[in-house]
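Trying the structure run again after the queue cleared.
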Amino acid sequence: MPKPIISLKNINKSYLSGEIEFQALKEISLEISEGDFVAIVGPSGSGKSTLMNIIGCLDRFDSGELRLDGKNVADMDDDELALWRGQKIGFVFQSFNLLNKFTVLENTTLPSLYVKIENPENKARKVLDQVGLGDKLKNTPLQLSGGQRQRVAIARALMADPVIILADEPTGNLDSKTGKTIMKLFQKLNNEGKTIIVITHDPAVAKFAKKVIKLVDGKVHNENAD
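Done. Tokens:
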């Protein structure tokens, strides 16, 4: 039985907009286990990006409990949280976040500037081969298609051998055919043992996941697993 790697219990999160308080998340409780492929879906304003930021240790919550690999976040110091952000989780974003003046190889090695990685250039070549870009090492992002840029971003996310890949609207800037190619790559990584969490508003993207968590107005509306 796979063990829970992320566990949320009664998570609440609010923001102030001027003098008005907006509750983005309301009593969120869910579990994600090792080896899961989860899609968190919902329309704009449903709270899915806020939930992603909390799962990724990028934002704090107001109340409730978050456990990472069984450990309560409340008991983790800044170094432990930084370890999760830098090594345990690989982030992939809709806008790719690549540096256009750097080559594909250089962009991929960037995590080695803040996380210890043995032989980063060799590791970068390996993960670029893994995502099918071993022949594009010297290209710059401007010389690549949108799908290729997203694959560079995925390779960069794999550099520190993360347990989890956390992807925010990873197909949002891609056409539907290229988006399917990227989602099949996530499926491949999941089959190789990575836990995949995809934030999306697109039902077609969610179909690639093994489990779908739907958010509506900051609440878990339903949770379906294959």
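The chain has a mean pLDDT of 93. Worth checking whether this holds up in the mutant runs.
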